[in-house]
Amino acid sequence: MEEKKQGYRAGDEDVKADIITYNTVIKLVARSRVRGCFEEVQALVNEMEAEGLPVDSVTCNTVMGALVKSGELQAVKKAEDMFHDMERMYKEGSKGARPGEITFNILLHAYAKSDDPDDASKAERLLNRMSETLQQDNREGIGPTIQSFGTFANSGQAEAAEAPHQTSFVKRKENAYVIDARLFFES
Description:
By secondary structure, the protein is mainly alpha-helical. It has helices spanning about 1-10, 20-30, 35-50, 55-70, 75-90, 100-115, 120-135, 145-155, 155-160, 180-185, and strands at about 170-175, 175-180.
């Protein structure tokens, strides 16, 4: 990355770091999982924005994933904030920032890792929202995946979520979770 920056500063337009370069470096740093990698990821995103490059769903998903894996206090809150920022950017016209199934699953994973009992109902609402979106518009919808249900069921959040009421699509029956398959087959 430094070589690209030096070449660009020297006037070589061909070596200017683009969004793909930044996203690649951000992903590599995030996957390193060394102490302080989340701070380095944040610095790269800030640098990217300072260069005038748009933050897209790849950038946000990588940052959210690094954040959730970092074990940082407030990781869930920051992941939620980033999710809402993505929704806002998409509504404002940044099509590349549209939250997708990966984004939803990262946030669901954050809730699953959380010790906060309120996050169980947030996980349930997120799954319901994914299901409703899928049912409303199959082509544009963001439906829950097997990974979504697996994360939810294995997290312990499913049991916490169903304490006051049962979810609309996951029912507990004799130590197993039954997923309402109509979500995947209704037209």
